[in-house]
Design a protein that fits this description.
Length: about 900
């Protein structure tokens, strides 16, 4: 191929280049993989490594073609059919077989009773279905592990028999196993990852396909298609099963948010409808000026009127009402139902993609792991003693080798978590300090300050601190995991995931746990407040702390999702633009170095952001953190599922755009589930039950209301507000909170939100008996709620099997048909082989007989010519007898065979 700059000089060349945009120069063989390196790299060691590595690739049967026309040199790789056949058998890849007799009957019987239902549902959901012309339904095929012995049973003639994902997966497997130092083929000098880490190659990536990508961009990565289903089969063929299973999970999770979002809306509407029937809000709003509350700080704070919290108590009622327990019950049941239904849905997908029964094969060791073995003296000595051709790896002892890096890694993780807790604690102190002084927002007793100013400013600062800690720990977690001896990529990913998520759990949820379970619970009383650094602890409004928890949840949840969306789209877009601009204007060039011109697919994709093994980690983490917001604290904001639903509808399309336009095509990998993330969500679901129980018990008025009604038989709750407010005699102040005179004159008593005896009681300011009753009932409620919900969740998990009965029957029947088909095939092959061998032996015997007769006749002719009187008996027999004798000989041999 000529210089790319000349491709734009004449039209004919441009047309010719269109045929080889992502193909070899012959225009037939497609480019499946690309290696790129700097053409100015003249290091002898790197050149030898590249030559050896590429020669080994060619020995494996891969086709290589070099593009050295620009400063970045590219090695184009194509996998021919024979290589794909060989490694498909080695990797036990399941591929579609030809139609088996009786196969259609299986699928026909499955839908015999549901044709009318399917027709009705098809018409009902026609608006969200995929365009059948662009995404035609694939014919149902039985998948079986490819074996070259049974090649004729597979649908090899199908053009897409090896889809792009399978081809990429096989080539990547080959690249990871090839040595690059001739004569020193040890475990630490093989694999493309090691070459990339050593800088021998700049990058290795697969190419986007314009045809398939344009189709996915128009029909999938398009916000206008937000209500349409995802083309999961096309995504699987383009990106591989590991990426497709993420989008399948995200889509399923988004659809499961619809019913719980409707419940949240109904719950919120119920609060608005019954807003004016709440006796607590009515009593607070109608309170007279004589109901004065005690000052909320120790210095220069005046008394304040109870009715100032009118708006806060009304808004709090939207969350804390008679339907709160019902909504908590629905959320708990929804969480476990979602997890169980996902297992059923994923089982169906995995079977459709031919991954049923797939387990991770023995993975190739990570190059970083092998390098760590070399750096360890004892292990390096063991490696040096091995046969160079051996692939044996030394056993890495835990206590002497693995323990110290793992202990150090997790110790630093705990230290980081402590730093996060200190940051959250500093926010609490900030809020206390704000309470202790006059606010810049005006009157600190105003509703605006109490409801909006304080929670809003604290929430914004908290979000900033959380984001900074998140960014700092993201790089730290990678370094901590690098210290460990993680042999395979799966072990590495799981270790990184657990380490990162535990930190994120503390980082994002700590402030919410504080507001839900600690704020206002250990304040004390006016004569003896509990202080931290001299500051009084924060108090909840008389209506409760749920509204502040709601505001904090909205700020952190929505703010985090907005920040992530901006960074996910903006950063790759800006990086792509910067790379293109720098290559065009020469900003990244060295002296006398030519520009890199994008004139084909591999040069265009070179400018994209690289794909890494941890690229999907951030996507999963964002969604699982959101799942925690909904399940752990969704009770405080019933519209949280709705906000998550809206975000996810957009998230699916934005992730698709990012992966198709701004990131290099990922290496396709096999997967049968979402990995450790499912276990994390299972644990979060169990914690969420306890969280909901504790929020209801300690942060709502449910238990105090029940105790009040039982003690006073006042079922109208007209006196409940007075029941929750204690009296305090201002003469008992040890330190007067007001330096001057109060605007309310000489105040003799004030009220505060606590369950304590009045000053005229024989035990003033002590806990009354009904306080202990409330505490016992709260604890009993937590135990009962958790056990009841736990039992119901267990029943749901038992009632919803991981694999549907229909799918199990299909798998059994397909396996039966498959076995019978293979047996029949083997029988036919055995018969053909036996007949072939028989024919060959018969042919050999006949040839021997004819040869013997011919030799005998020749001998007789020789005797006759010599004048002898000897005569052979065979000569005296006629031709018919001779033929009969031949047939008898053949028949006797056949009988013996």
């Amino acid at each position: 191929m000529g210089n790319c700059m000349q491709l734009f000089s004449d039209l004919d060349t441009v047309v010719g280049d269109a045929k080889t945009r992502r193909r070899f120069q012959d225009g037939v063989r497609g480019v499946d993989y690309v290696l790129a390196y700097n053409g100015a790299d003249h290091k002898l060691d790197n050149i030898k490594k590249r030559e050896t590595f590429e020669a080994n690739l060619e020995k494996e049967g891969l086709h290589l073609e070099r593009d050295n026309t620009q400063r970045i040199h590219f090695i184009k790789i194509h996998a021919p059919r024979e290589v794909l056949y060989r490694y498909a058998e080695i990797l036990k890849i399941k591929l579609p077989m030809k139609k088996i007799p009786g196969q259609d009957q299986i699928y026909r019987e499955e839908y015999e009773l549901s044709d009318s239902v399917r027709t009705c549902c098809g018409n009902l959901f026609k608006s969200i279905q995929l365009n059948p012309d662009k995404f035609p339904p694939k014919p149902k095929r039985i998948h079986f592990e490819f074996q070259r012995n049974y090649e004729h049973l597979f649908d090899c003639e199908q053009p897409n028999f090896f889809d792009a994902g399978t081809r990429i997966y096989i080539i990547n497997f080959i690249l990871e196993r090839q040595h690059f130092i001739e004569g020193e083929e040890t475990p630490d000098n093989l694999g493309i990852e090691k070459l990339l880490a050593d800088g021998v190659y700049e990058c290795a990536y697969t190419l986007h396909d314009d045809t398939d990508r344009d189709l996915l961009l128009s029909e999938w990565a398009n916000l206008r298609k937000w209500k349409h289903l995802q083309p999961l089969d096309a995504i699987k063929e383009y990106f591989g099963a590991k990426v497709a299973i993420y989008f399948a999970w995200l889509g399923f999770y988004t659809h499961m948010l619809i019913p719980v979002s409707i419940c949240g809306i109904l719950f919120f509407v119920y609060g608005f409808i019954t807003w004016h029937t709440d006796p607590i809000s009515q009593e607070i709003c109608n309170a007279n000026k004589t109901t004065l509350m005690c000052p909320q700080c120790d210095r220069n704070c005046d008394y304040w009127e109870l009715k100032n919290t009118c708006a806060a108590s009304k808004m709090n009622y939207l969350i804390d009402n008679n339907m709160t327990v019902l909504f908590a019950f629905i959320m708990s049941m929804w969480a476990v139902t979602y997890l169980e239904l996902w297992k059923r849905y994923s089982a169906r997908l995995i079977h459709r993609w031919g991954l049923t029964g797939y387990t991770h094969d023995v993975e190739h060791p990570r190059p970083q792991y092998l390098q760590k073995l070399r750096k360890n003296r004892k292990l390096a000595q063991k490696l040096d003693q091995l046969d160079p051709e051996s692939v044996f790896e030394p056993e890495v002892p835990f206590w002497t080798t693995k323990f110290l890096p793992s202990f150090t890694s997790y110790s630093l993780m705990v230290l980081s978590i402590c730093i996060s807790l200190i940051a959250i604690f500093s926010m609490v102190v900030y809020r206390m300090a704000q309470r202790a002084s006059h606010s810049v927002w005006g009157d600190e007793n105003s509703a605006t300050y109490k409801i909006m100013a304080m929670p809003f400013t604290a929430g914004i600062i908290d979000l900033i601190v959380i984001s900074i800690l998140d960014y700092a720990y993201s790089s730290l977690a990678v370094k901590l995991t690098d210290w460990e001896y993680c042999r395979t990529q799966t072990e590495y990913d799981e270790s990184l995931t657990i380490k990162h998520y535990v930190f994120q759990f503390v980082n994002y949820y700590s402030s919410l746990f504080y507001i839900a379970f600690l704020k206002g619970k250990f304040v004390g009383y006016p004569m003896k407040y509990n202080t931290i650094f001299g500051f009084r602890q924060e108090e909840c409004n008389p209506g409760g702390c749920l509204m502040e928890l709601c505001i904090q949840l909205i700020i952190i949840m929505v703010g985090k999702q907005a920040v992530n969306a901006i960074f996910e789209m903006l950063v790759p877009y800006l990086m792509k633009k910067f790379r293109k601009l720098s290559t065009h204007v020469g900003l990244r060039r060295r002296k006398n170095e030519e520009k890199l011109v994008s004139c084909n697919q591999w040069t265009e994709d070179y400018h994209l952001e690289p794909w890494t093994n941890t690229s999907m980690f951030g996507e999963y983490l964002e969604m699982v953190i959101q799942y925690g917001f909904i399940t752990l604290f969704g009770l405080a904001f019933p519209l949280a599922p709705l906000l998550a639903l809206i975000n996810n509808v957009i998230e699916v399309r934005l992730d698709a755009v990012k992966m198709l336009k701004f990131i290099r095509r990922p290496v396709a990998q096999r997967a049968r589930d979402i990995g450790v993330w499912f276990s994390i969500m299972t644990v979060v679901t169990k914690i969420a039950v306890a969280s909901c129980a504790m929020i209801i018990a300690f942060s709502t008025n449910l238990i105090p209301k029940l105790v009040y009604q039982h003690e006073t038989h006042d079922y109208s709750l007209q006196g409940y507000l007075n029941f929750t407010l204690a009296y305090f005699d201002t003469k008992d102040y040890r330190t007067q909170p007001i330096l001057g005179e109060s605007k309310y004159g000489n105040v003799s008593e004030c009220r505060y939100s606590e369950f304590r005896n009045p000053p005229w009681h024989e035990h003033p300011y002590k806990r009354p008996m009904y306080y202990w009753k409330i505490l016992i009932i709260r604890l009993a409620f937590i135990v009962v709620f958790q056990n009841v919900i736990g039992v119901l969740q267990t029943i749901i998990a038992w009632a919803i099997p991981d694999v549907s009965g229909k799918l199990l029957r299909r798998i059994k029947r397909e396996n039966f048909l498959l076995r019978e088909h293979i047996i029949e095939y083997e029988k036919r092959q055995a018969q053909k082989d036996a007949a072939k061998k028989l024919a060959e032996k018969v042919h050999g015997l006949a040839s021997n007989v004819i040869k013997g007769i011919t030799n005998h006749n020749n001998n007789n002719s020789a005797l006759n010519n010599g004048g002898g009187t000897f005569s052979d008996p065979i000569e005296e027999e006629d031709d018919d007898v001779v033929q009969l004798r031949k047939r008898n000989i053949i028949q006797d041999d056949t009988t013996q065979l």
